[in-house]
Design brief:
7 helices, single chain, mainly beta
């Protein structure tokens, strides 16, 4: 009886197996991969799959690799929906499922643009520290910058809010102890620095910015052409609703002794963005007009102001061809001009220059997701034109008390850059070593610079009028220089395990005009030692090479100096000596990673940098980060007076050095209702050679080339404490405080002949310590109801008028901007020029 049951059971099992195979043969799977615009996986994305003509719905959430897998699906037509807070929801995707055939869908999410800017800060989620890698950026959102007490207009205006970045009294930005020309500025991955000088120029309006990321030492190989830091800007695209802003529509008036004396400043800004075609084509437009009359308090009205005028327009068009393909076009137009530029007590209006500049930058970006890979193609073009000329074409005279005559220098130039860059971010690859996020890039850049440089005689006189030295200029010719750069890089961000991530990579660079080829390795790690993401330790080491701006290679066409010295009786005691303009060569490195062409101008400035950093959340609201950086730079381009083969010469060489050390601690306090406070303290030292080429080959060169010294650099600040943020007060009032306390900048002393006295820029030669307390108070007034009563229609969105009252240097602390540093000046050693307490009222309209 039992034996007769086994065949029946076997038949039943066989029927069950056949039925199961039939069912599984009639089902399929859908694999969904979600990544951001940078090609990184996006976790915790809600993914919904709906069967057409049915109420059947399946929901999943993407994992840390940005993946969601739907299995055992019935054949049919499905609709795929994805969503995540802070990102634009892409269009629904139609998915056709066939029995036995798996389907893969790749989607790219882009940040969402909200109508009210305050929401943007709240919606920004903090990334996993391991995902940030070994060198996270100091990130600044547009809304954070716009609410600051300084009320910045452009990207460069926001940078001093970050630790390690300061602006001098002459308006120059210094990043981590170095000038702008040693840092990189990227907008949507495109290089936008001046091809001739490496300077930033007029940067993108703050209203067109999404985020500003500043890297001290990015160990990712995709970043190059710098030895100090990287500023990477991402601009905002239009959202799915129209947004309009009118900022600072009213000018700031000038009042003197209780009387109105015209305009002091005007900076109206108009911003609007939204969809031109729903879910397809988006526009973002920012336009800023600037009129500024910067006053010099040591001079009397009306001859105490520099007048500058500018137009800053940024346009962005985004086209979403599909859920996996997007295109973007940007255009930045920035003409500007200034009269009586660099006006101060020692260089009054007749001896100052005028200048006019025109910058045009266009870029096209194509992003294509295939499989789980992201291919990004970038083509950008920049044209920078600049003219500098004096008030009158005469000779310049330098005296111990002030300079007279006319500005000695006249220049016109046109620089161009065409850049093509391809990058490929591969889908995460998992093996026994961990999860790999690989990225590769290949690029070519063509730059050109042509122009002419003209200089007129300089007379150096004693306080009694006696002629001590005369500098004349001979020769010179127009110049035209071209360069081609090639770059290639590969990098890997490896998540070894839940506690450890490693960044490794290498970069190849070749600059044809220098004839230098180099391979640049970098490595860093991020470690969470306590088994969670609360505490993270980071460390890294990298080699960073800088490109050499084209102005360096125009030096041979500059006029040559002819110097004559005179005695007390007016007789010639030395000279005339003609100083040849010589571009030197550097010795070839005996290193496998770099190859030199042994020819003049074979410069290769570089820095070796290591960092160590710890970050930890003290409480839910307070997060603290502390780190140390050590950078040694070599091969910097310098200009020095020398004797070469018995001939006097100004030698442009590549033997300059600098050293930068920084200890930084930063705290962020995030309170409820979008309130936050940033506090940073930086202890740093910046030492190096003073005769850096940018002082003499830029738009406004120094009139005298003194012997080089290795000393404290102009931006050396041993101590700087900075506090800023946004708080809410009773009565719906917002308060944006800014407190800065730091050491004064170093200075040098000269004698009547304008030669150094002693060692320049010592610790004993500093301006007084700087302290400033600024505050901005704002209040939003909703005006929907009054407008609705007037027009008789109900408005769909709320409209606000934001009134602001700003105070600067509330304590009226003595922060001098000028010093009598000539030992022959009767008032030698006197600090003067005080920016006293002042206030400002402005309005914004937001709807």
């Amino acid at each position: 009886m039992l034996n007769s049951c086994f065949p029946a059971r076997r038949h039943a099992l066989l029927l069950l197996a056949v039925f199961s195979l039939t069912v599984f043969a009639q089902t399929a799977s859908v694999r969904v991969s979600v990544r951001n615009e940078q090609g990184q996986p996006v976790a915790a994305v809600s993914v919904q799959l709906n069967l057409s003509g049915s109420d059947s719905t399946t929901n999943h959430v993407t994992d840390e690799q940005g993946l969601a897998l739907f299995e055992q699906l019935k054949p049919g037509a499905y609709e795929l929906l994805v969503s995540k807070t802070g990102f634009e929801p892409p269009q629904p995707v139609k998915v056709s499922v066939t029995a036995g055939a798996p389907v893969s869908v790749e989607l790219t999410l882009v940040p969402k643009i909200e109508v009210r800017e305050q929401v943007e800060v709240k919606a920004t989620a903090r990334a996993n520290p391991l995902e940030q890698g070994a060198s996270p950026a100091n990130e600044l959102q547009r809304t954070q910058a716009k609410e600051a007490a300084t009320r910045p207009d452009t990207v460069s205006d926001t940078l001093p809010l970050l630790p390690g970045i300061v602006r001098s009294d002459q308006g120059e930005l210094h990043l981590y102890g170095a000038g702008e020309n040693r840092s990189a500025l990227l907008v949507n991955n495109a290089d936008v620095t001046d091809p001739a000088t490496g300077q930033f120029g007029l940067t993108v309006p703050i209203d067109s910015v999404q985020t500003i990321n500043v890297f001290r030492t990015p160990y990712l190989a995709q970043f190059g052409r710098f030895t100090a830091g990287v500023v990477a800007v991402e601009t905002r695209r239009g959202g799915d609703k129209w947004n309009f802003e009118l900022n600072d529509p009213f000018p700031e008036f000038r009042f003197l002794r209780g009387h109105l004396r015209g305009l002091r400043e005007a900076s109206p800004r108009v911003t609007f963005n939204g969809p031109l075609f729903k879910d397809k084509l988006f526009l973002s437009q920012g336009i800023e007009y600037g009129l500024s009359k910067r006053r010099v308090l040591a001079l009397s009205f009306p001859n105490n102001e520099t007048v500058s005028e500018s137009l800053n327009a940024y346009t962005q068009l985004d086209y979403l061809a599909s859920a996996t393909h997007s295109l973007a076009f940007t255009l930045h137009i920035a003409p500007r001009k200034a009269k009586w530029f660099n006006l101060d007590f020692f260089n009054q209006r007749p001896v100052t220059p005028n200048f006019s500049a025109r910058d045009y930058t266009g870029a096209f970006t194509d992003r294509l997701t295939f499989g789980a890979h992201l291919l990004e193609s970038l083509v950008s073009y920049k044209r920078a034109e600049q003219d500098v000329w004096p008030q009158t074409r005469g000779e310049m005279t330098l005296t111990p008390t002030q300079n007279l005559g006319s500005y000695f220098h006249e220049q016109e130039r046109q620089a161009r850059r065409l850049e093509v860059l391809e990058t490929l971010a591969l889908a995460p690859l998992k093996n026994r070593a961990g999860v790999h996020n690989l990225k590769f890039g290949l690029g070519v850049t063509r730059t050109e610079n042509d122009g002419a440089y003209l200089a007129r005689p300089i007379n150096i006189r004693a306080a009694n009028g006696q002629l001590l030295k005369r500098i004349e200029f001979a020769g010179g010719a127009p110049y035209d220089r071209q360069d081609t750069e090639l770059i290639a890089f590969g990098q890997d961000h490896v998540t070894v395990n839940p506690k450890l991530a490693v960044d490794v990579g290498a970069r190849f660079e070749h600059q044809s005009i220098t004839g230098v080829q180099r391979v640049i390795p970098r490595a860093g790690l991020a470690w969470t030692p306590f088994g969670n993401t609360r505490t993270v330790l980071r460390a890294g080491y990298g080699l960073f090479y800088d490109r050499v701006p084209l102005n360096v290679f125009a030096f041979g066409n500059y006029p040559e100096q002819v110097v004559t010295r005179f005695g007390a009786d007016g007789a010639v005691v030395d000279g005339p000596r003609r100083f040849l303009n010589i571009t030197d060569r550097v010795a070839a490195h005996r290193w496998l990673l770099i190859k030199h062409r042994y020819a003049p101008g074979n410069f290769a400035p570089y820095s070796t940098t290591w960092t160590l950093e710890a970050e930890h959340p003290i409480t839910k609201a307070l997060r603290v980060r502390a780190g140390y950086q050590s950078s040694n730079s070599h091969g910097l381009v310098m200009l020095n007076p020398q004797v070469v083969a018995g001939q006097n010469a100004l030698v442009l060489g590549g033997g300059g050095q600098s050293r930068y050390r920084q200890f930084e601690t930063t705290a962020r306090v995030a309170l409820k209702d979008e309130q936050e406070v940033f506090v940073s303290y930086v202890h740093s030292r910046a030492r190096g050679d003073l005769n850096e080429f940018g002082k003499f080959l830029g738009s406004f060169p120094a009139p005298i080339v003194r012997p080089n010294f290795r000393a404290n650099l102009p931006a050396d600040l041993p101590n700087r404490l900075l506090l800023w943020g946004r708080l809410k007060l009773p009565g719906r009032v917002s308060w944006a405080p800014l407190v800065e306390y730091r050491n004064g900048f170093p200075y040098f002393q000269v004698n009547a002949a304008q030669d150094y006295v002693g060692h320049p820029n010592t610790d004993q030669q500093r301006f007084p310590n700087f302290f400033a307390l600024d505050s901005r108070f704002t209040h939003d007034f909703e005006i929907n109801k009054p407008v609705e009563k007037i027009v008789g229609l109900k408005l769909q969105d709320k409209t606000y008028v934001r009134a602001s009252l700003s105070f600067f240097n509330l304590t009226n602390h003595f922060n001098p901007t000028s010093l009598r540093n000539n030992t022959s000046d009767p008032q030698f050693g006197l600090f003067f020029g005080q920016n006293k307490r002042r206030f400002r009222v402005d309005f914004d309209i937001i709807f």
